[in-house]
């Protein structure tokens, strides 16, 4: 309560007030207190000036053409030739708006154009005062009027011409004032406008002093108003730039935090799965539940692996990523850890979007258990390949069935449409939660992006979710092992393994997998202290046949990267197999590891059989390339 009362007594600044404190008012305008921030804002000025420069040039081209046409009925004078100046200047400025070499200097070019037209406007006022007066008085001949009448007429004409010319002068200054909103030299333009009027108006021929003074005051007031408006407009632009900068910084921080959280989560799940797996190996009692727990943890790590795909889906930027995969392995991975009354998977291999189908079917299976009959959902999962027509591509049919819950509403087309579009029905409390809406809507979103046909129907108490995918279907590739056990048997026995990891569980798990499936001569582990990391390269060269290292090695004294150690191995001429075992194994991560020298990349969610099978393939590929080099020599 005391803390609450103290909080109420404090006046916390609003976000807008906090942002305003990052600006300071200088004699020459607003500036950011942070020099780097101000420099980034100034770097955007040329691009911001491109659109105003196009409008500015178009205005002066149109105005000049109209002015030239308006002069045709009258005798050609100096004002006629002066009208060509803004026409030429507008054309030059307009062309520069489309040239890459001049667009980066657009603020400077626009400033020069504005300054020149301010001076031109002053010169035009001077010329028009003489020319308009002569044109107006030419209609009043001394033959028909007395001297005092002519003087009165001339005085009236001078007043009229002065005010009309002053209005035109101010009107032609308005484009300069509008362009000044985007220019940093607004103070210079304001001073030049006032000085130009102060010099030209009193010194022009046939001008009435009193009218000139009033016109000068009006022009000065308008210029000062435009200057303060420009300062306020620039402040708004700077606050917008500050907001965009902070939003970008927050986004980058959130992205990094998300990456760290994703990496940490996968490491914790890997350690948990490893602890359970080691316990299961040592336990002789029934442990089916623990095996399902391991499968669930591996599935969670696999979902974390698709983090970038989720980001692309939410952003609407997901693109299909077709890979050649076994339908049996794909189905078993999704069914692992789930009680299914029926599971049938085609033995074919097909080229389809593995990630998209996995995310869609993961959501479908989860919803089948979550929203199906609480007592007996009777979930079945089948994958079949329709090759009866013999056409290519054929169709893959993924089907998930379950018994519906009597407490939930009937799945009609209208109801499903509301779920997909996330429009809740008023008063319907049996609607799924928001996260379910998002999952189903995103399933249909990614299906549209990848050309996958989805359907969700209910017939009686049976709910059927179907996904139809067009894919190229083949038998197993010749170089692909029929089973992981056969792949593991191809790894030569008697190899020496060196393993580096900062996690004790990960070290024990890798050793267990190697001893169980690889028949090694020896397995030596490193990584208990940072000193072992520093000695890892020197103690492995000339001794180890296979090196397996984690990418992120964190210790209280400092952090190390496995990719840096890879580079050291390559520089010192290591001839064995270099492997990176990491929780981050996205396409960009894998490319980075291979560029540093890794021959294969092991995901932490891999089972022991999968890990050794991957090592076997990479080992034989490395030896085959070495034999080819020796043969060429």
Automatic annotation (TrEMBL):
An example Gene Ontology biological process: phosphorelay signal transduction system
UniProt modified residues of type 4-aspartylphosphate: 550
Keywords: Membrane, Phosphoprotein, Transmembrane, Transmembrane helix
Chain segments annotated as transmembrane: 55-74, 80-101, 108-128, 178-200, 212-233
Recorded superkingdom: Eukaryota
Domain Response regulatory stretches: 496-619
Gene3D superfamilies given in the database record: Histidine kinase-like ATPase, C-terminal domain
Name this protein carries in UniProt: Response regulatory domain-containing protein
Protein species of origin: Eutreptiella gymnastica
